[in-house]
Amino acid sequence: MRERVRERREDLVPLFLHFVRRFRPEIAGAVAAERRRLRKVLVAEPFRGNVREMENVVRRFCLLFRPDLVGGEIASVLETCLDRVAPHGSPLPSAPADLKETMRTTERAILQDLLGNHRNRSEVCRILGLDRSSLWRKMKKYGLND
After folding, report:
1. Are residues 108 and 71 in the same domain?
2. 15, 22, 62, 85 — which has fewest CB within 10 A?
3. Tally of domains in the chain
4. What is the mean pLDDT of the chain?
5. Quick one: 17 and 84 in the same domain?
6. What are the pLDDT digits (tens) for 70-103?
7. Under 8 Å CB-to-CB from 19, ≥6 apart: which residues?
């Protein structure tokens, strides 16, 4: 029988930090310094997912995290990411009427934020898991060229 993440509460923070180091190593130290707050949020949340879903939560967290965030703000970003996790088989709350437009708006906002916070486009590609040509096409699509 496979254990769910919620059944291994002691592994929540180490697993979370593992994925942070994998996706954005430059912020791992700042996030690890807030271990106590992370544990408080992660243990309080009735996380229903498996390790893959935890990985997706951390991906969202890494996209939303800004290095100038501290303390309670880190917990707030994490809570936002956890609120988006829905149990298997249940619909996600408040689906937008026009999903494609919402996806475009969200993608543009994420790209704009990352490009504004990182001068090195290779770093943005690594964070997003894109190759440089894909990033270039998306920047052109949304009018985010220099």
Report:
1. no
2. 22
3. 2
4. 79
5. yes
6. 666 777 888 877 765 544 444 444 555 567 777 8
7. 54, 55, 58, 59, 62
